[in-house]
User: Which sequence fits this backbone?
């Protein structure tokens, strides 16, 4: 899936159990722009955060909740389809501070 987002937009706050091979692990390719990426294992209280600039590959393991906030306008390739996540998407908040 090719995703375009405007600066300031936030997406995610989900994790996957890795039922589909295309979300085990989940892979994003940041093609353009800069994001603040936050993540934590679902059993952890503390989260980690990193600013990531294109071009970059972001790999998320199963059971890791994650969120992405666009610092600039961004273009992201999400290396799975909607069908891959429809039965394996769970919502769980993770912090983004921008």
Assistant:
């Amino acid at each position: 899936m090719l995703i375009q987002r405007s600066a300031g937009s936030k997406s995610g706050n989900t994790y996957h159990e890795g039922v589909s091979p295309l979300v085990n692990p989940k892979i994003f390719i940041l093609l353009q722009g800069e994001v603040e990426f936050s993540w934590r294992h679902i059993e952890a209280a503390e989260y980690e955060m990193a600013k990531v600039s294109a071009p970059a590959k972001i790999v998320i393991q199963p059971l890791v909740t994650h969120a992405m906030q666009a610092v600039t306008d961004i273009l992201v390739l999400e290396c799975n389809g909607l069908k891959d996540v429809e039965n394996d998407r769970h919502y769980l908040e993770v912090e983004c501070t921008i």
